[in-house]
Amino acid sequence: MQQTVEAGFAHPILHWFHPDDPAYWYDLGQGPPPCGVDQNFDREEDFAESVTAYVYPQEAQQKATARGWPYVDAARGYNYANFLATPRGQFINTLMVASP
Questions:
Q1: Whole-number Å distance between alpha carbons of 19 and 52
Q2: 58-98: pLDDT as tens digits
Q3: How far apart are the C-alpha atoms of 83 and 53, rounded to whole Å?
Q4: 76 assigned to some structural domain
Q5: pTM of the full predicted structure?
Q6: How many independent structural domains does the chain possess?
Q7: Pairing of strands 78-79, 72-73
Q8: 78 in Cβ contact with 72 (< 8 Å)
Q9: Range of 16's domain?
Q10: Of 84, 98, 67, nearest to 31 (Cα)?
């Protein structure tokens, strides 16, 4: 998923030295995060929250909005009706549909 949405740490060493500085947090890549980000957000958390948001999309959207990462945000170029419409939601949906 990390490669698909082009996410990751642009400066992992600087994040390690400055974990409280949002400038060095996990780069979200495409689309909004499932429930917002903080200094602990990484690829594992991104995937886990994305799966949870797939199962509970309304709760995820409420949390994301409350944490300052709404799915509709013109300033960030986001215009998603819900989590399932985001690049992360589409990726998780592909996994779920492909699973036997």
A1: 25
A2: 999 999 999 898 999 999 999 999 999 999 999 999 999 98
A3: 7
A4: yes
A5: 0.84
A6: 1
A7: antiparallel
A8: yes
A9: 12-98
A10: 84
Q: Are 63 and 35 in contact (CB under 8 A)?
A: yes
Task: Report yes or no on 45 lying in a domain.
Answer: yes
Ramachandran bin of 9, using left for φ above 0, alpha for ψ from -120 to 50, beta for the remaining angles: beta
Phi, psi (rounded to 5 degrees) for 28: -70, -15
DSSP letter string, the chain:
-TTTTT-B-SSHHHHHH-TT-GGGS-B--SS--SS---TT--HHHHHHHHHHHHHSHHHHHHHHHHTT--SEEGGGTEE-SSGGGSHHHHHHHHHHHH--
6 assigned to some structural domain? no
User: Which letter, b or e, does each residue of 27-36 get, where b requires 16 or more Cβ atoms within 10 Å of its Cβ?
Assistant: ebbebbbbbb
Contact 19, 39 (CB under 8 A): yes
Say if residues 30 and 90 touch (Cβ distance below 8 Å).
no
